[in-house]
Input
Amino acid sequence: MNILEKLENNQRLSYEDGIKLYDLDLFTLGKYANKLRRDKYGSKTYFNINRHINPTNICKDVCQFCAYSSSRKNPNPYTLTHEEILNTVGNSAKNGIKEVHIVSAHNPDTGLEWYLDIFSKIKEKYPTLHVKALTAAEIHFLSQEYNLSYQVIIDKMVSSGVDSMPGGGAEIFDETVRKKICGGKVSSEQWLEIHKLWHTAGKQSNATMLFGHVETAEHRIDHMMRLRDLQDKTGGFNAFIPLVYQRENNFLKVKDFLTGQEILKTMAISRLMLDNIPHIKAYWVTSTVKLALLSQEFGANDLDGTIEKESINSAAGANSANGMPLQEFVDVIKNSGFTPIERDSLYNEIKTW
Output
């Protein structure tokens, strides 16, 4: 059976099929990805009202693609105090946020208890706020620093009020690529093990893939296959987020930047390959708002959220430093022909705008 017949019959695709998908033209991919998306969600496009907080940019690791951590490219180190973080959460709570998303660098000076304490403080003061925090890369870093197992750290996170895990740190799972772009960071197997443990604890998480740097289509499909295999076992991934590599202020010398067509192809292929991960998020921060909206026609059904402030990708050139006002967010979704659905962090529908 050829690839088009498999797509017509909605059959599960193999690794080899995934490679062949990149040979198809964009509109063929879009046709099949959009059908799956429409069958599941109709014209709904999901978003949440959230606040990103990046507490520190002091980092023990040196990832070649990163423009955020304090280094020769970003000589302005900072660490927020707990008071500053709580003030930020308080101000954002007045704006109706439902989620606080806390991700930062691997700072050996802040420490495990520093994180756990701020999670507890947020939860104590704002008990209904969903706390999404600590990537698998951060958990691995803390595990190494304190000689604690992943399980112990996960148990501490849960008891401190962390509700779900973000999907960062996955980058590309192929270890040859990882050695070049983020050597010394959490390995692919470790990343998958941490998420497996998190899912086993009854919690949900997201998964990401950073693409458009030195990886190949084969690496991308391998990445998706590994996520699909784990999802078959745990069912714990809410969403897959293909992150577009940002090329400014970092050490990777990427000359041929992704075309819009390649980005849309990868969004569509994500929907077609990841038949067991319900949501595909076009993270507008890395793809631009316009392309994220166009991605809703190519398999994606989510845009992330209003964010309010974002430091990591904007340091590398993304136009996301100040988030997006809620009404503007709703309006651009409507103007694209979709129905804006405000959701909570676990994709329960809150409001149709």
User: Anything to note?
Assistant: The radius of gyration is 19 Å. The chain has 14 helices and eleven strands. The CA atoms of residues 159 and 252 lie 39 Å apart.
